[in-house]
Amino acid sequence: MINSGKYSEYYWIEIVSDSYNMDSLILLFPEFIIDKYLSIVSFDSDSFVPTDDELQRGWVYEDEIAYFDKVTAFELSQNSLFDIYDQWLLFDTKQRFKSMDIFVNYSAFSIDLNESREMGTLKDTERFWNQIEKIKPQKFILNGDKLIFGTNNHMEFEKVKASCQQLLA
Hints:
Elements: E1 2-7, E2 10-15, H1 22-28, E3 37-42, H2 52-56, E4 60-62, E5 65-68, H3 73-77, E6 86-91, H4 119-135, E7 139-143, E8 147-151, H5 154-168
Antiparallel strand pairs: 1-2, 2-8, 3-5, 3-6, 4-5, 6-7, 7-8
């Protein structure tokens, strides 16, 4: 199942599929991540705490968020960076922020404000968008019950959407 839309300056897509996940997204579109500034808000439902080796390679850990400036192909190839219930923000320039809720842990979380659901889950979605608008990443990836990709670049959105449609056809 694919659901997509636009909110403010962000184009987004939600994918529910066993065959299209964060691995697929990274394998198909490493250029969306390489040379970007990565913030890992959630790794396997919790904080990503860099190892000593990772810290020596440039990782920084502040306020329960892990940062890597200018992601390299090597860093991206490390399977220890993502698992499931991961939440990433990507920036074109160095950014630090104090906090962000871990939305990826919410069961069946959706960023679609038009989706019919209970008021409580709609409030979670509104809070997500408020935090995204405050932090202003260029891209975000949530890998939980759904794979959610958002970007302020329409061409990137169209590439991801086309790859999903092709793979899931």
